[in-house]
Amino acid sequence: MNNLFNTGEVVNLLPFDGQADYYGTIMGTPAAGRYMDSLMQSIEWRNDEAVIFGRHIITRRKVAWYGDSDYGYKYSGIVRQALPWTPELLELQRLTEELTGVHYNSCLLNLYHDGEEGMAWHRDDEKELAPGGAIASLSFGAERRFLFRHRESRQVVEVLLAPGSLLVMKGATQDRWLHSLPKMKRVTRPRINLTFRSMMKNTVAVGR
Q1: What is the pLDDT of residues 152-175, one digit of tens each?
Q2: Please, how many CA atoms are within 13 Å of residue 82, restricted to the half-sphere of its CB?
Q3: CA distance 176 to 141
Q4: Angle at 167 between CA 39 and CA 195, to 5 degrees
Q5: pLDDT for 66-115, tens place per residue?
Q6: What is the C-alpha to C-alpha distance for residues 166 and 96, in angstroms, rounded to an integer?
Q7: pTM, whole model, 2 decimals?
Q8: What is the distance between the alpha carbons of residues 47 and 83, in angstroms, rounded to a whole number?
């Protein structure tokens, strides 16, 4: 397992078959704390849902989906429709676009209440996403481990995602690598993760 630390430069964490650029912290601690507090209060959080082997499961982890339009986005067997941007999300969207040079038309947010909540190995390969497009992940709150695992070699790469940090996955990353947010029981503080995405222009909004 490779342990990677921020050096103040943009670093591609992946040794081959993809690109995961870690920008480190892109804002100071006070600003990151203010955004964390605001997002906790202003976002329309809902418990995440999934249909697994025919069973409808509701998780403790919460999610929210925002965008330029009421895009329909289906993952884990559940269709979600995007809500209009909030002022804070528009600020963070613009900041992320300035740093990465990519336009993002939507954002999926995750709220992990503590280290007892995480995310299993998966790929962000839903058909509504632009193939090979960038997914920009902005973190607030508790520092958490984030892992990549190559689908064939099984090589694992690890990074600690600090509050106010930015990670951008693009190219072949979603095809060749899985990623996860492992549980960390010693973490007692919440974490919010914003994943800015580019939905396909022909995505059809689907009713609930």
Answers
A1: 999 999 999 999 999 999 999 999
A2: 24
A3: 29
A4: 45
A5: 999 766 666 556 667 889 999 999 999 999 999 999 999 999 999 999 99
A6: 8
A7: 0.87
A8: 16
